[in-house]
């Protein structure tokens, strides 16, 4: 069993690319489909703290509830923003990956490479055709 967890949305290309880079390192992560199984309040607060980001930085802005709820206004406290994310998990930006080396919001997906315990086992090309890892397992710049 892997000690890597991904909060995943299979409808998201960035999330799918991140998952495949984890697999390309030889790991099968625990996959949490966070839209179906959202984190608890404590889990969400811990993830935000472990990532070292603000609550607002985890807020997904280009989804329907964001505009409807007026979340672009700075009047909401962190607690209120967390409440909105728990009520509407689509507002939680993704993918979030937890490994022994850290917790990151993997946008862009290549950020996951910084926290994977093992290197890439072979070439990897993102769904859009961008080559990320060459045949020797090295990152392409």
Automatic annotation (TrEMBL):
For this chain, the family text in UniProt reads: Belongs to the ArsC family.
Pfam families hit by this protein: ArsC
Q: Which organism is it from?
A: Siccibacter colletis
The record's catalysed reaction(s) read:
[glutaredoxin]-dithiol + arsenate + glutathione + H(+) = glutathionyl-S-S-[glutaredoxin] + arsenite + H2O
Task: List the protein's name.
Answer: Arsenate reductase
The EC number(s) attached to this protein equal 1.20.4.1
| GO molecular function terms listed in the Swiss-Prot or TrEMBL record | arsenate reductase (glutaredoxin) activity
State the source organism's domain of life. Answer: Bacteria
Q: Is Oxidoreductase a UniProt keyword of this protein?
A: yes
Arranged from A to Z, the UniProt key words for this protein are:
Arsenical resistance, Oxidoreductase
């Amino acid at each position: 069993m892997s000690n890597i967890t991904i909060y995943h949305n299979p409808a998201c290309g960035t999330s799918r690319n991140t998952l495949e880079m984890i697999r390309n390192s030889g790991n099968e992560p625990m996959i949490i489909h966070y839209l179906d199984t959202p984190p608890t309040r404590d889990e969400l607060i811990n993830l935000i703290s472990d990532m070292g980001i603000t609550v607002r930085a985890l807020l997904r802005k280009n989804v329907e509830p964001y505009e409807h709820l007026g979340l672009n206004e700075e009047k909401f406290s962190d607690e209120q923003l967390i409440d909105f994310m728990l009520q509407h998990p689509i507002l939680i930006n993704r993918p979030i990956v937890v490994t022994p080396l850290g917790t990151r919001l993997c946008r862009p997906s290549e950020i996951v490479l910084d926290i994977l315990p093992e290197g890439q086992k072979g070439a990897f090309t993102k769904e859009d055709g961008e080559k990320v890892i060459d045949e020797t397992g090295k990152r392409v710049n």
